[in-house]
Amino acid sequence: MTVSSTLRIRRAVEADAKDMSDTYFDAFDDTVICMRCFPLEGPTTKPWFEKFLLEGMRGEAAKVWVVVDTALPGPEGRESEGKVVAFAKWVGPRSEGVPKEDEGGDEPCPPGGDMDLAREFFKAMHEAHVDIMGGERHWFLSLIGTRKEAQGRGAAGMLIREGLRHADEAGLRCFLDATQKGKPIYKRFGFREVRCMTFADESVRQDCMVREPQGNR
């Protein structure tokens, strides 16, 4: 896929949290998990999610990148930087393997969200991650999202390649869990499905995928 000439990738800063949150909801507002666990009509949903993103950026081994479109104005006061159209949170190797906090905690979604579904979903995905990767050092694509207006322009590929570059340089495997929409993209980058998970009466399907380290891409 050809990357649009106006797209640039850079490390995320904390001031990007709101734009990253807006990007997430633009990308996933039609999915069951988003609609039920992170309902946009809830007044606390976006502030909760922005705080979640900020805490994630500060986590051990977290590497967060954004893709900006320089042809579009950025937020007020930063217009010349371009508009954030995609972001990804990668997590590098950690000393203790997969930390328990990745499970989502006691309140893995904001008030007003479907707490039972959120607990079931995030706990099961965490347990699958631990079961598949164990204490192995690896890179984990924790979260990625692209605004609908930028989909198909190469933004997601830029973010995926950035994490894969680090993993390949270290000779480490990568892990992620994929929606059905995202799965074909990850396959193009060498990920293979190792486990399928279903939730909400099988209306949600998430696939655990693993990629072996490769040479230069």
UniProtKB/TrEMBL annotation:
Source species, domain of life: Eukaryota
Signal peptide range: none
Gene3D superfamilies given in the database record: 3.40.630.30
GO molecular function, a single term: acyltransferase activity, transferring groups other than amino-acyl groups
Matching Pfam families: Acetyltransf_10 (PF13673)
PROSITE patterns: GNAT
PANTHER family in alphabetical order: ACETYLTRANSFERASE, GNAT FAMILY FAMILY (AFU_ORTHOLOGUE AFUA_8G05690), GNAT FAMILY ACETYLTRANSFERASE
Protein's name in the database: Acyl-CoA N-acyltransferase
